[in-house]
Amino acid sequence: MQAFRQGSWSQYSDPDKLEIQIFVDETDIGQIKTGQEVYYSVDAYPDKTFKGKITKIYPEPVVKQNIVYYLAIVPVRKEYAEFLRPEMTVYTKIIAGTKGMPLLSQTLQ
pTM for this one? Predict the structure, then answer.
């Protein structure tokens, strides 16, 4: 199971503290926890996928256009900072769960 969300950037005065803010819909928030892996991309680098983990989920809701969201935070790794800039649109995939390896079947003759 995966949750797909669009995120935005937040930056403090220290460029090493770049983070992604993911607005998670209230219907999906029950599947999201701190520590979950997040894969993300930006339009500027369509062939690159970046990776991080959720470190915080704020309990206070954010209402946008009458939709309730909860804010999840993903710090950006230092090695990604040279590619990424504040205010870029971020496309995120939160890994909410995985399934075991599929069984392989073999046709016998």
Answer: 0.77
